[in-house]
Amino acid sequence: MTRIGLLSDTHGLLDKRVLEHFRDVDEIWHAGDIGSAEVLQRLREFKPTRAVFGNMDSGDVRYSLSEFYRFRVEEVNVLMTHIGGYPGKYNPWLIRWFEQSRQAKAKDDLRRTKDDLSPADASKIDVPSESATDRHNIIDLFVCGHSHILKVMYDKHYGFLTMNPGAAGKQGWQTVQTLLRFAIDGKEIKDLEVIELDRK
Prior knowledge:
- The protein has 200 residues and is an alpha/beta fold.
- Helices cover 27% and strands 30% of the residues.
- The radius of gyration is 18 Å and the shape is globular.
């Protein structure tokens, strides 16, 4: 099991309470608008950290990170970017990736169905063999930030969970700083906790 601490939109401020809440996680993920190289460095010194740059990031932060980050934790395929949206309101440039994921999952479902059939029935189904491209294209968890609005939703159309941890910094209109903590256990995403920090 891998325990994850997820945050976004620190905008140069790493509240010491974030580190307290992430004390027992295995990895930290930052979904952009980090705000300074110092914040990124402090996170990396504290725990293994995965991050993308946001639209407000510049300098060392922007040049040391990418806009999109695809990775796998245990058996969960993750896509992380800063500006992403949510089910029904995604940024248009992501739709191609989401469609590729949906098609790869449909093939995977066919393969699983065929495995459950008798040999005679299975021979009637033409299923493409699994490819590395299919495995790479599948998205199980989509992570973004930018909106400063904490939102966790399952997308039924594309078949993945979306997470936006809201804003962990103090820049912007939100009155509460928010974080997410959860675990990945094999293919399962579980034990999700919302953490709210009153702005001081």
